[in-house]
Amino acid sequence: MKSVTNSFVSLGHWPSAGGFGFNTDILATNPINLSVVLGVLIYFGKGVLNDLLDNRKQRILSTIRNSEELRKGAIEQLEKARARLRKVETEANEYRVNGYSEIEREKENLINATCDSLERLENYKNETLLFEQQRAINQVRQRVFQQALQGALVTLNSRLNSELHFRTISANIGILGAMEE
Hints:
It is a single chain. The chain starts with a helix and ends with a helix. By secondary structure, the chain is mainly alpha-helical. It has helices at residues 2-12, 26-159, 162-180.
């Protein structure tokens, strides 16, 4: 303590016309210099430090507000995207269900059309068979008739003599004459 007092005392005893010198007593000069520098820094730097801290605080608060606004916007966009996703999924399910329904309808229509075609073909086949049967029956009838006619002609020619022939012609002429009257 005595050395600190001596440093203050020695300041008062400095010669005014003397030179400038270094005080090599570290223990006596450093605490005084530090206390003076700290006092000046605190007195003058307090406003600057407060301004710097206030600016930093305002920037941090502004950044937090901006972050909150961005977060709210992101949450809104996320909700909109989720709602759109739900809507798209619903539409996709509707298209899928409608697609399956349409496929089933087309399948049934194709089956029905095929059944109708098969039925028409069956009817055509039956008509063709019936026609062919009728044609075959008519051909058989014609042949039987031709054979019967040939047999009758052969029988008639073999048994017909000129007198029987003359009577048949006369009878037929009489029938035709009666028809004309």
